[in-house]
């Protein structure tokens, strides 16, 4: 039933180019798109032959309607047999979450799975070029399509080619994902066969040259579709048709009657066998077919029937010659018979020990019958789907399990709760009502706590106060200690983000602290609160932070995607404990890598952005903030975009890229307005506007920050930098007395909190509002306060200001020493802005400083700087790509550009060029 490769020269050329791309290492995606029967699969088979002749590793899969409900079903076909243990290492190990479910998984590991499968493909391609063939993508499951789209966007630089087929506008197809795949693919649309090819096909089947009228009729009734032409030609041959009128009559019948006419003479065993194969799919064994067809006692008859079906051009092996033929067989079955066959298939496959995800589609196609085996398989398949990140599919599995239904009231309750939780996560409207109904019906204990927590997640962005109420009730109901800690952490986060009365927040913290032992979540929130208020001596604050971290227990329990853990890293930073904060963040990095949680990168990268601003390299701070932004945009977490944009802008300012900083931060706060995020974003936006000399706008932003902090008792100068930045604006606009008053407040607060760095920052801003010797004396005190701290960039700015004031007073020689030290600290922290201004002041003092080294490193983009840093630390290109969630080619391009800008030719020279020799590079 095939039109062969008649008139497909253009398609074959496209296939050849695509296969060539695998051998040149450039990678390619070729999508063959067209209606059923147009010849897509025939071209795909040509790709298999071409790739095989060149000794590529050819991995193939074909989807069917049933595969839509089998998570990663297409991926299993493609990769199961090729995924050897030695290939599942590094980032590719995350592919085990799909290919080896016994490996276990973190919840919601969807991105880790995609990343792992990508690296598995990359590992396979290191051995020899890989060609992936995927037929009928319009029937593929959503998780598999997500993988193919993920691979397609990163395929440049891999020795991998994907050739796939799909139908346009197929009902039920995931159109959005297919559209995204098209963006990265070369799309080829095979057209109808021309008259010459139609004439050749008819002649081959009829044994005689058809008349021009017959060719025209054949074209008209089939539209030049190769499959329909083949069916028509064979039917015409069998019927002895010799006229256009006879062809027109046969063509009007379509494929289904032709299939029925082929099956009928083969006997009832062949019909039963064809129906069983249509239900089971092409991977069925002869025993599977015999059992599902009800012919278990006559296995030999099944084997014979399979042979007869192949001879009649209905099957090729266990596969139908075309999906339209399979569809015709399925459509000819009464609905009840088809459902019964699916039930038989489910029982057979579970007896064979197939994974629940492969069995579940058959249970879903069977009639509900209260079968505990169906419930068990569907629940297990849902757990698999959650592990693989296919939460929508998991919800569908549980909904079908509930319909079965479970035999006991307790299990019905469990399934309904699990379903409600998943429905809320995938934003299905029935989820909240289901959970509230369960709570009204008497759900209690941990189950009730879970329901309240799920409702809180549903409400957190639309009604934060209601979310807080749900979480408060959840903490009352929870009995399991781990669940209780997670809920307490979630409640405290919600209280922060909802911007509730600080008295209420602190009362909740105190309740957690009164427990025996105190809740780690409460300790974390207390550490952050006391750090912001500045009412705890530094040593005691650091000790409180260490108690909250619990030797790693807090991170292990709530995970790096929790802001509770992140609050402690910020508290350590407020306490000016650079090394303690660095150790905590390095633990967060490890957790992100091990769990592959893309959402967690928001918190880790944001915290690193602030850490580098204060203690490290502003170039790395910008790179990490940008990495976090890319992650949250990929996840659609728009509420948190201002938090990352802000710290990215802050680091860009220090990189002397003010225009870029303005573009990042000068945006509407959107959903972040009125939340805990707002003051941190506003204080940085205020600084950028101040540097742009938009003084009124800067003052408005910064007064909002100060009001926000005052209302919550945040007295620490480095909490949100509000007073520090506002003092800069006031001093620049001639309001020295008001600036001095603000800084006197911060100086007193810094001394109360025993934070020398805060003291130095406040003294430096105080000097902005002073004149002559008074300002110089204040700046000397600022330098002395900052000297012993790890706040190198702030120390550099204090030295710069001191040198500038000395030069202005006429002490040009004395000015040079602090300015040279400022220049050194600018190099160490990679602050191009500080370097430029210190350099200008040195020149004004009569010195002739060199700037070559600064220019080399300063020319690197944030992304180039991060890649160069990791390479200097000894990571391979592959390890860098795995760490940064990018492709090998991206790493190679960034390194190549870095070498050029730094004037080096070898990886060995990177540490020296970056100024890292003799010091441990910060992660």
From TrEMBL:
A single Gene Ontology CC term: cytoplasm
UniProt cross-references to InterPro entries, sorted A to Z: AAA+_ATPase (IPR003593), AAA_16 (IPR041664), P-loop_NTPase (IPR027417), Sig_transdc_resp-reg_C-effctor (IPR016032), TPR-like_helical_dom_sf (IPR011990), Tscrpt_reg_LuxR_C (IPR000792), WH-like_DNA-bd_sf (IPR036388)
HTH luxR-type domain residues: 853-918
SUPFAM superfamilies per record: C-terminal effector domain of the bipartite response regulators (SSF46894), P-loop containing nucleoside triphosphate hydrolases (SSF52540), TPR-like (SSF48452)
Any one GO molecular-function label of the UniProt entry: ATP binding
Keyword annotations of the record: ATP-binding, Nucleotide-binding
Entry-linked CDD domains: LuxR_C_like
Keyword S-adenosyl-L-methionine set for record: no
GO biological process: regulation of DNA-templated transcription
Protein name: Regulatory LuxR family protein
Organism: Solirubrobacter pauli
The organism's taxonomic lineage, starting at the top: Bacteria, Bacillati, Actinomycetota, Thermoleophilia, Solirubrobacterales
């Amino acid at each position: 039933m095939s039109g062969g490769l008649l008139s497909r020269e253009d398609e074959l050329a496209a296939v050849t180019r695509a296969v060539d791309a695998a051998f040149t290492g450039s990678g390619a995606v070729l999508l063959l798109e067209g209606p059923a029967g147009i010849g897509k699969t025939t071209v795909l088979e040509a790709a298999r032959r071409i790739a095989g002749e060149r000794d590529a590793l050819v991995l193939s899969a074909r989807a069917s309607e049933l595969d839509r409900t089998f998570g990663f079903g297409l991926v299993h076909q493609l990769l199961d047999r090729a995924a050897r243990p030695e290939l599942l290492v590094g980032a590719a190990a995350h592919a085990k979450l799909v290919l080896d479910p016994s490996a276990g998984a973190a919840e919601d590991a969807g991105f880790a799975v995609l990343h792992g499968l990508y690296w598995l493909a990359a590992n396979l391609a290191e051995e020899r070029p890989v060609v992936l063939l995927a037929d009928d993508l319009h029937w593929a499951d959503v998780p598999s399509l997500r993988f193919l789209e993920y691979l397609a966007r990163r395929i440049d630089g891999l020795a991998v080619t994907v050739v796939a087929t799909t139908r346009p506008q197929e009902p039920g197809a995931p159109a959005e994902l297919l559209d995204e795949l098209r963006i990265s693919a070369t799309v080829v649309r095979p057209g109808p066969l021309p008259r010459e090819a139609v004439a050749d096909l008819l002649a081959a089947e009829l044994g005689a040259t058809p008349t021009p009228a017959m060719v025209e009729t054949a074209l008209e009734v089939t539209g030049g579709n190769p499959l329909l032409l083949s069916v028509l030609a064979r039917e015409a041959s069998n019927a002895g048709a010799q006229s256009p009128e006879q062809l027109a009559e046969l063509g009007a019948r379509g494929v289904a009657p032709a299939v029925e006419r082929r099956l009928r003479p083969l006997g009832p065993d062949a019909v039963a066998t064809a129906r069983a194969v249509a239900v089971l799919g092409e991977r069925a064994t002869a025993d599977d077919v015999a059992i599902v067809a009800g012919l278990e006692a006559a296995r030999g008859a099944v084997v014979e029937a399979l042979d007869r079906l192949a001879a009649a051009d209905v099957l090729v092996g266990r596969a139908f010659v075309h999906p339209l033929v399979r569809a015709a067989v399925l459509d000819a079955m009464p609905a009840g018979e088809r459902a019964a066959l699916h039930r038989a298939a489910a029982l057979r496959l579970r007896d064979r020990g197939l994974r629940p995800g492969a069995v579940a589609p058959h249970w879903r196609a069977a009639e509900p019958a209260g079968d505990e085996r169906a419930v068990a398989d569907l629940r297990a398949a849902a757990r698999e789907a959650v592990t693989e990140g296919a939460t929508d599919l998991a919800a569908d599995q549980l909904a079908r399990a509930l319909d079965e239904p479970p035999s006991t009231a307790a299990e019905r309750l469990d399934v309904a709760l699990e379903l409600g939780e998943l429905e809320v996560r995938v934003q299905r409207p029935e989820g909240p009502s289901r959970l509230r109904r369960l709570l009204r019906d008497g759900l209690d204990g941990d189950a009730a706590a879970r329901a309240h927590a799920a409702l809180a997640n549903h409400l957190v962005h639309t009604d934060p106060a209601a979310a807080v109420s749900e979480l408060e009730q959840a903490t009352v109901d929870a009995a399991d200690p781990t669940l209780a800690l997670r809920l307490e952490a979630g409640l405290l986060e919600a209280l922060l983000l909802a911007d509730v009365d600080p008295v209420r927040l602190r009362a909740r913290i105190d309740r957690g602290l009164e427990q025996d032992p105190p809740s780690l979540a409460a300790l974390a929130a207390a550490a952050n609160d006391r750090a912001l208020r500045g009412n705890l001596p530094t040593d005691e604050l650091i000790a409180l932070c260490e108690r909250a971290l619990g030797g790693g227990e807090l991170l292990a329990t709530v995970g790096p995607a929790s802001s509770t853990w992140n609050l402690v890293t910020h508290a350590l930073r407020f306490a000016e404990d650079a090394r303690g904060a660095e150790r905590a963040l390095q633990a967060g990095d490890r957790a992100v890598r091990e769990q592959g949680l893309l959402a967690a990168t928001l918190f880790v990268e944001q915290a690193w952005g602030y850490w580098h601003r204060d203690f490290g390299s502003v170039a790395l701070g910008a790179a990490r903030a940008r990495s976090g932004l890319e992650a949250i945009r990929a996840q659609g977490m728009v509420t948190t975009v201002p938090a990352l944009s802000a710290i990215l802008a802050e680091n860009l300012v220090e990189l002397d890229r003010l225009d870029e900083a303005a573009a990042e931060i000068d945006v509407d706060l959107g959903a972040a307005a009125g939340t805990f995020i707002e003051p941190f974003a506003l204080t940085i936006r205020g600084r950028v506007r101040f540097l742009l000399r938009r003084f009124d706008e800067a003052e408005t932003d910064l007064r909002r920050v100060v009001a926000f902090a005052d209302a919550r008792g945040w007295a620490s100068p480095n909490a949100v930098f509000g007073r520090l930045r506002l003092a800069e604006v006031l001093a620049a606009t001639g309001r020295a007395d008001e600036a001095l008053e603000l800084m006197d407040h911060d100086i007193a607060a810094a001394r109360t909190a025993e934070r020398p760095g805060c003291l130095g920052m406040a003294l430096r801003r105080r000097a902005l509002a002073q004149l002559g010797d008074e300002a110089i004396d204040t700046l000397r005190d600022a330098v002395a306060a900052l000297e012993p701290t790890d706040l190198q960039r702030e120390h550099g700015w204090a030295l710069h200001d001191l040198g500038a004031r000395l030069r202005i007073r006429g002490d040009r020689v004395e000015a040079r020493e602090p300015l040279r030290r400022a220049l050194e600290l600018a190099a160490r922290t990679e602050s191009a802005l500080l370097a430029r201004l210190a350099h200008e002041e040195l020149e004004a003092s009569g010195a002739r400083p060199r700037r070559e080294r600064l220019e080399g490193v300063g020319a690197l983009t944030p992304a180039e700087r991060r890649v160069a840093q990791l390479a200097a630390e000894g990571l391979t290109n592959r390890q860098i790509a795995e760490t940064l969630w990018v492709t090998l080619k991206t790493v190679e391009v960034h390194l190549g550009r870095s070498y050029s800008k730094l004037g080096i030719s070898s990886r060995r020279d990177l540490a020296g060029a970056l100024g890292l020799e003799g010091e441990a590079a910060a992660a």
